[in-house]
């Protein structure tokens, strides 16, 4: 692609040595990935400033550079822009030929429920005869090929590459607040956008819950001409978003328990795998929700309303739900020889953990046991509220480690001790090794116990633990098949 085509729609200051016909063979924002013929985009990142690596990029073969800082005297053309992140995303879209235009694009955002809603959508859409790609937290799935995810919302180059590679009719994207704030979805427009809910999360990144909401709501400004918004009204932030979009040209539909919702939940007939009664238009029908818990009632309703707007009847979609097999790392249940139930779940917010407890209570759990870990360099402000919640509900709370992310282990253990003393009245057990914490709960489990292991879901461990496993699920499977007690 020639330079002027790549810069189309991007405001830059063009240098004297600008060549509109300069052929660009690739784009990179990592100087180490540059090959001759590439353009380098210098981004002021969170851990390093890309402008420091311009010389390295040129040495590796970059033939042009885009950045924010005023820089002179380079041997290649340098284009200054006000926002190099936005420029990167727009150039990526230009480079790959605006691939979002060839797909029906569905964006899913919210604190909780993005992944489950995306998997539900993919299943229903594919069972209805359409092909579907997915970009999200667990995996990226393109043309039926599974690619392990690095982030919920990938960087702009990866997103546009995946969209260009996809031959599927529909693409579902989980859209994180980080992805929106960091301009990763710039240049992408959606046919459908879904808002699941909002809760206290990522407040180490966003200055307040209001700022977090405002970032999330920016997804709904990225709609195609006849775009449709699907909003959960049972959450106060969903109602605020509905009000915010009232004067927009797009169609806005809600699901919840209000009489004015497009899809209204009338009642829940059973609890664990809920059978629900739903009103849509003038008709009502019973629907079997394929996943446990009230939170999955809302996830299912959001998926059903979206596919209905795509032309798939609620009756047909509900029929397809019967063959849904679940989501990796989302409320995956495992039986214990003594009759206990172990659950691996990604839950890492108060709301998500409360949903887990509600399900256990509805199933008459005799005891709730929780193995809870926190990650280094993550939102520490929410930890005290989560520990307080867990200690109030659980018969046994075990505090353990999640990913350290460069924080010294001793410092994280001290943090667990402090949380235990201040917000759990010293009642929690502290077992830093995550696998040994799970083994401890496994060895002590009794009939009627519900044991939750939260925070990582399907994710692999980033450091080594005592047991020879790499995920929470593998740890449980190891303990189920171990013929002899595992040494401490």
From TrEMBL:
<comment type="pathway">
    <text>Cell wall biogenesis; peptidoglycan biosynthesis.</text>
</comment>
<keyword id="KW-0460">Magnesium</keyword>
<dbReference type="InterPro" id="IPR013221">
    <property type="entry name" value="Mur_ligase_cen"/>
</dbReference>
<dbReference type="Pfam" id="PF08245">
    <property type="entry name" value="Mur_ligase_M"/>
</dbReference>
<keyword id="KW-0547">Nucleotide-binding</keyword>
<keyword id="KW-0573">Peptidoglycan synthesis</keyword>
<feature type="binding site">
    <location>
        <position position="151"/>
    </location>
    <ligand>
        <name>UDP-N-acetyl-alpha-D-muramoyl-L-alanyl-D-glutamate</name>
    </ligand>
</feature>
<dbReference type="InterPro" id="IPR018109">
    <property type="entry name" value="Folylpolyglutamate_synth_CS"/>
</dbReference>
<feature type="modified residue" description="N6-carboxylysine">
    <location>
        <position position="216"/>
    </location>
</feature>
<dbReference type="InterPro" id="IPR004101">
    <property type="entry name" value="Mur_ligase_C"/>
</dbReference>
<feature type="binding site">
    <location>
        <position position="184"/>
    </location>
    <ligand>
        <name>UDP-N-acetyl-alpha-D-muramoyl-L-alanyl-D-glutamate</name>
    </ligand>
</feature>
<keyword id="KW-0961">Cell wall biogenesis/degradation</keyword>
<dbReference type="InterPro" id="IPR000713">
    <property type="entry name" value="Mur_ligase_N"/>
</dbReference>
<dbReference type="InterPro" id="IPR036565">
    <property type="entry name" value="Mur-like_cat_sf"/>
</dbReference>
<comment type="function">
    <text>Catalyzes the addition of an amino acid to the nucleotide precursor UDP-N-acetylmuramoyl-L-alanyl-D-glutamate (UMAG) in the biosynthesis of bacterial cell-wall peptidoglycan.</text>
</comment>
<keyword id="KW-0963">Cytoplasm</keyword>
<keyword id="KW-0133">Cell shape</keyword>
<feature type="binding site">
    <location>
        <position position="182"/>
    </location>
    <ligand>
        <name>UDP-N-acetyl-alpha-D-muramoyl-L-alanyl-D-glutamate</name>
    </ligand>
</feature>
<dbReference type="InterPro" id="IPR035911">
    <property type="entry name" value="MurE/MurF_N"/>
</dbReference>
<comment type="similarity">
    <text>Belongs to the MurCDEF family. MurE subfamily.</text>
</comment>
<feature type="binding site">
    <location>
        <begin position="110"/>
        <end position="116"/>
    </location>
    <ligand>
        <name>ATP</name>
    </ligand>
</feature>
<feature type="binding site">
    <location>
        <position position="176"/>
    </location>
    <ligand>
        <name>UDP-N-acetyl-alpha-D-muramoyl-L-alanyl-D-glutamate</name>
    </ligand>
</feature>
<feature type="binding site">
    <location>
        <begin position="152"/>
        <end position="153"/>
    </location>
    <ligand>
        <name>UDP-N-acetyl-alpha-D-muramoyl-L-alanyl-D-glutamate</name>
    </ligand>
</feature>
<dbReference type="Pfam" id="PF02875">
    <property type="entry name" value="Mur_ligase_C"/>
</dbReference>
<protein>
    <recommendedName>
        <fullName>UDP-N-acetylmuramyl-tripeptide synthetase</fullName>
        <ecNumber>6.3.2.-</ecNumber>
    </recommendedName>
</protein>
<keyword id="KW-0132">Cell division</keyword>
<feature type="domain" description="Mur ligase C-terminal">
    <location>
        <begin position="329"/>
        <end position="457"/>
    </location>
</feature>
<feature type="binding site">
    <location>
        <position position="31"/>
    </location>
    <ligand>
        <name>UDP-N-acetyl-alpha-D-muramoyl-L-alanyl-D-glutamate</name>
    </ligand>
</feature>
<keyword id="KW-0067">ATP-binding</keyword>
<dbReference type="GO" id="GO:0008765">
    <property type="term" value="F:UDP-N-acetylmuramoylalanyl-D-glutamate-2,6-diaminopimelate ligase activity"/>
</dbReference>
<dbReference type="InterPro" id="IPR036615">
    <property type="entry name" value="Mur_ligase_C_dom_sf"/>
</dbReference>
<feature type="domain" description="Mur ligase central">
    <location>
        <begin position="108"/>
        <end position="306"/>
    </location>
</feature>
<feature type="domain" description="Mur ligase N-terminal catalytic">
    <location>
        <begin position="24"/>
        <end position="96"/>
    </location>
</feature>
<dbReference type="InterPro" id="IPR005761">
    <property type="entry name" value="UDP-N-AcMur-Glu-dNH2Pim_ligase"/>
</dbReference>
<dbReference type="Pfam" id="PF01225">
    <property type="entry name" value="Mur_ligase"/>
</dbReference>
<keyword id="KW-0131">Cell cycle</keyword>
<keyword id="KW-0436">Ligase</keyword>
